[in-house]
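quick one before i forget lol
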Amino acid sequence: MDSHAGFLNKLWSFISFLPFFFLLFILGIIKGALIGPVAFAIVVIGNSAVIIGLWPAHVVWTCYSVARTKRLGLVLKVVVLLCLPVPLLLWPVVGVVGSLLGGIGYGFFAPLLATFEAVGEGVTNKFHHCFIDGCWSTIETSCTMVQDVTDFCYYSYFSYTDELRENLPPNEKPIDIRLFLLPCCLLVILVGVPFDMAIIISIAIWKSPYMLFRGWKRLLEDLIGRKGPFLETECVPFAGLAIILWPLAVVGAVLAASIISFFLGLYSGVVVHQEDSMQMGFAYIVSVVSLFDEYVNDLLYLREGSCIPRPIYRRKMTHALESKSLGGSNHNLKIRRDSSQNSKHILQQTRSLKWKIQQYKPVQVWDWLFKSCEVNGRIVLRDGLISVKEIEECILKGNCKKLGIKLPAWSLLQCLLTSAKSNSDGLVISDEVELTRMNGPKDKVFEWFIGPLLIMKEQLKNLKLEETEETCLKELVMRCKNDIPEEWDSTGFPSNDNVRRAQLQAIIRRLQGIVASMSRIPTFRRRFRNLVKVLYMEALQASASASHIGANAIPKHREKGSLQRKEDNNVVEP
C-alpha cells in the first residue's frame, strides 16, 4: 500500500511539474529567438573579420617559420611546405563555419539555459530573473568570444610560430623522415583515410539509435522515479531539458566520430614510418576500427569486445601479450562497469543525503590561478619586485611578455613551496583546499599542467630549502633570467652549491615554460589584462593617498616652523 501511494505521489509530482517546465521552455525559446540573432551577428561578423583579415599574415608567417625552423629536418620540412597550402586554405573556411555554428548554438541556447537557471535554488525574485537573465549577458559573452578569437589569432598563433624558429638544445636532434618510406606512408594514408572514415562513420550511424533510445530510457526512468539528475529539485529543469536535447547530443557524437576518423586514418602513415613496414600500417587501419567499435560498445553498455579482427600493428606486441591484454581488458571492462554502477549508486545515495562532493574542474583551477596572481601581484608590487611602469607598459603598449610570465610563475612557485612544506600529496591552493590527482580535473590538458607541478613539488621537498633560500628564490624568479648557476653569484643566494643552484634554476625554467604554454590559451591574455588593470588602479590609489597624506603633513610642518620663527622674533633680549 505504501509503495502504491509512493508511486502515485511521484506520478502527481511528475504531472504537476510538466506545465511549469513547458512554460519555462517556451519563454526560453522566445528569449533565444530575440537575443540569438544579435549574438549570432556579433560572433559571425567579428570572428570572420579577424580570421579573414589576418589570414594573409598567417600564410606568410607560417611559411617563413617552417622554412627557417631548425626543429625539422630537410625532407620533413619540404613535405610540410608542400602540404601547407591545404590547411592554410581550409583555415578561413573552418573558422567561418565554426563561427556560424557557434553563433547559432550559443545565441539560442544561452538564453534558454539561463531561463532555467533563474528558478534554481538560492535565486531571489525568480519571476523577474526568468525574463531578464540570459539577455544582456549573452551579448556580452559574444563580444568576449570575439576578443578571445582575436587574442588567439593575433598573439597566440604568432607565439607558436616564433617558438618554432627557436634554436634547438645541444642534445636534441631535428625531426626528420626517411625519404624512401614516404611513398609507402602516402599509399597507406590513401587507403586508410577513406577506409577508416567509411567504417567508423558507419559504426557511429548504426549504433546511434542505441545511444538515442538508451539515453531516453535512462532519463525517463530517472524522471519518473526522481532519481539521478532528477533527485535534486534545482537540477530537474536541466534534466528535463536534457531529454528534449538528447537527439542533438547523438548527432554531435556522430559528427565527432566523423572528424576523429579522418585523423585516425592519417595516423596510419605515422605507424608505417615508425615501424618501417607497410604491413603494420595496413594492420593499424583494421585494428583502429576494432578499437573504436569496442569503445562504443563499452560506452553504450553493449556486448564486450568487437566482432572486427584486431591485428597487431606494433613489432613490440606479441600474440600472447595481445590475447592477454584483450582478456585483461575485457575483465577490466567488466570491473569498470560494475564499479561505475556502484559509483552511480553511491553518488545517488550521497545526493540523497546532500553530502558535498568537491570536484575541482578545469575552470575552477583556471580561476584559482588568476586569483592567486592577483593576490601575489599585490605582494610583489609592495616589495618592489615589479614596478608601476611595467604595469603601464602592459596596459598601454600591450607589452605583457615579461609580467605575464614571471608573475604566474611566482604564484606557482609560492604554491609549490607551501605544498612541499605541508607534506601534502597534491597542491595546496588555499588554506582549506588541496588539489590532488583524485579530486583534480580529469581533463587531459590539465593533467599535462598538474603532473609536472606535482613532480616539481617533490623535487623542492627533497631539496629541503631554508627560509632564507625561499625568500631569495622568490626574488630571483622576478629579477633574473636563471640560465646559468653563476648568474646568482652577486645576488646573495645563501647556498654556494652549483648543483643545488642548477636544480632550482631548472625548476624555475620549467615553471616559466608551463606559464608560456598557458599564456597562449585565448582566455589567458584577456583575464591577465583585467588582473593587471586591477593592480594598476590599486597602485594609483595607493600613490594618490600617500601624496595626499604627505601634502597634509607639509603645511603643518611649515605652520609649526612659522610659529617658531614668530616666537623667536618676539623674544626680547635682556
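fyi The chain has a mean pLDDT of 79.
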